[in-house]
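Following up on my earlier thread - several people asked me to post the actual chain instead of describing it. Fair enough. Here it is, all 167 residues.
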Amino acid sequence: MTGHRIWRHLTALILLCGVIAVIFTLSSQPYRVQTIQPFLEKKLSFQAAERLLPSLSIRYDGHRYSRDVNPFGMIEFLFRKGAHLFVYGVLAAASALVLRSYRLRNPAIAALSLLVALIVALLDEWNQRFSPARTPAYQDVLVDLAGAALSLAVCYATSRLLHRLKG
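Reply from S.P.:
Thanks for posting it. Predicted structure:
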């Protein structure tokens, strides 16, 4: 590897380790530290929060989230699941960057990046067992994998588009 490639590989590896550290730091926090409902209740009235959401009800891990019952809980639920999608998307992209330096084919990079996301997601849910007021949920692993897969698809499509535009 040349000096430039080593630097790029090291940067990608640091990014990957940083994302994993953030995931485990967040999953080690108790729910009361992470909840955004008190903030939402200060900034929005019940009616304003209700107007932000479509009239729907979601069942997830034995809980029901509904605009009509608790719009703040519904907003927090959507925010938290969106965060799962985003963070695991970044994790998969960082994994792919690290794996690219080994000159693997794209399908192998995607498969290994998804495997990294799966392992981290499973360990993340296991880690939550030890955090106050947190419960592990296998559905979160599926959300995490969806975020990873979506990110890899977007990265691949963007890479192909840029490659075609270059000539």
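The chain has seven helices and two strands. That should answer part of your original question.
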